[in-house]
Amino acid sequence: METRCVLLDASLCVWVSSRLGTFGVNALKSVSVTEGDSVTLDSGFTEMMDDDVIQWKFGSENTLIAEISVLAGTITVFDDVLDERFRNRLKLDHQTGSLTITNTRTEHTGVYQIQIIRNVSKSFNLTVYAHLSVPVISSNSSQCSSSSSYCSLLCSVVNVSHVTLSWYKGNSLLSSISVSDLSISLSLPLEVEYQEKNSYSCVINNPITNQTTHLNITQLCQPCSEVHIHCCDTLEAVIRLVISALMGVATAAAVVVLVKDVRFARSIKENEQIS
Fold first, then answer.
1. Which residue in 30, 94, 143, 220 has a CA-CA distance of 20 to 30 Å to 118?
2. Domain-by-domain residue ranges, the chain?
3. What Å distances lie between residue 159 and 176, 189, 209, CA to CA?
4. What is the pLDDT of residues 54-79, one digit of tens each?
5. Range 136-222: architecture per CATH
6. DSSP per-residue letters across 194-223
């Protein structure tokens, strides 16, 4: 049997093997899916021959996870291997030999290979991406500075992998940060002017989906002068209220004193008349 690599472009190498005049092609096909979804790895056949035996294998050790024998009329799923990560998740099409994985998890990421007795093989590199959390935008200013005309912001996401976190001004990319294999928290800062009128957004994305949060400048970025004025207005209102209360108390006290003086004077006058 002769085996050789035919380089089709810079990234795709097709292995061609010949045996008794037949050829097998094994080209790695990339497939991506979001965690929880189902995915079908297509065998490429519309029907199988009577003597076909199809085997699906997974991972670097080529662990057998499913098999169809047309001649024996059997379909076998080995979902108890590899710590039962495939338990109740594998389905085989008895007509085409295609493999369906339901309710996918990130642990199902890897290389799947279908092997057929006709000396034909085909491989799939499946990547399962976790659901993306919505980015959170917060103010990164510890205190208000009257000398600064910029508002400091921070966009954050937690427990992410294989993602890119980016700031956009309209449709223009301002900055970005990426993470590959590790599940970590990401943060990306941004400074904007307090009176900024442009539209800003923070976006997290992986190769198949994204989540976006739009910046509300009015809510998160308030100039110091406005804060001071607001504080002063509040303080002034409190002072006025206190003064009004004190004046009310003073007036009430004066009335009481005046009433007592009138009663005292009237009492003296009545005593004089009796005498």
1. 30
2. 2-129, 136-222, 223-275
3. 17, 18, 16
4. 999 999 999 999 999 988 889 999 98
5. Sandwich (2.60)
6. TT--S-EEEEEE-SS-EEEEE--HHHH---
